[in-house]
Each structure stands twice: as C-alpha cells, then as structure tokens.
Design brief:
The protein is mainly β and 124 residues long. Helix content is 0%, strand content 49%.
Length: 124
C-alpha cells in the first residue's frame, strides 16, 4: 500500500489543522493505521492509531483530548484532526500502515508502510 499525507501548514497556538493520508495500491480496510511525528533533533514519536474498521483508537498521552484520529475506508483515507495546538506539536507528521497486532501499534518499527511526512508548524 502507498500512502500520501497532506494538510500540514503554519498555525497559531490554539489553532486547528486536519491532516489527511490517502492510500492506494492495497486493501486499505485490512490495515491498522497510525500517525507519528518527529520534531527537529528528536526521535520519532507515536501520536495515534486506529483499527482497521475504525472502531478502536489509541492516543499518546500528549495529544489525548486534543487530537482525533478517524478513517473513511470508502475513501481509503485516514485523518488526524488536531485542535488546541501547542508549540510542542511542531513536527513532521507521517502516516503509516500495518497488519501487526494492536499491542504493537505504539512502536514505529511495527509499521512496514509509510507515507512521506507533512510539516506542522505551530507559532505563538
């Protein structure tokens, strides 16, 4: 499966953005999907994950209550709605796909398929 992320940009503190990740070339509904981010000079960080049918989600503590992951299997797209953005949310955000077990989804190594990143910059 190939993944294409979009929707990043510059936003002020407290603002909102919605990232999209469009899939092609595979059976999207078979994959669990995740969002990760990497800030300059820092390690890649898990943000959120969603089950193949969209019924179960998982969030990093740092974004819980502010970010929402969702998916539309007909459109083969996963979304990350980000609200209450903070300066520390500034990073390159990437989407990823996997069929690995749910218990492993916080680990970037569990995802064999990655899209290119989209930059989110939060300014004060």
């Amino acid at each position: 499966v190939q993944l294409q992320a979009s929707g990043g940009g510059l936003v002020q503190t407290g603002g909102s953005l919605r990232l999209s990740c469009a899939a092609s070339g595979g059976t999207f509904s078979n994959y669990r999907m995740g969002w990760f981010r990497q800030a300059p000079g820092k390690d890649i960080e898990f943000v959120a994950a969603i089950s193949a049918n969209g019924g179960t989600t998982l969030y990093a503590d740092s974004v819980k209550g502010r970010f929402t992951i969702s998916r539309d299997n007909y459109k083969k797209t996963v979304y990350l709605q980000m609200t209450g953005l903070k300066a520390e949310d500034t990073a390159v955000y990437s989407c990823a796909a996997t069929t690995r077990p749910w218990s492993l989804l916080r680990q970037s190594q569990s995802y064999p398929h990655w899209g290119q990143g989209t930059l989110v910059t939060v300014s004060s």
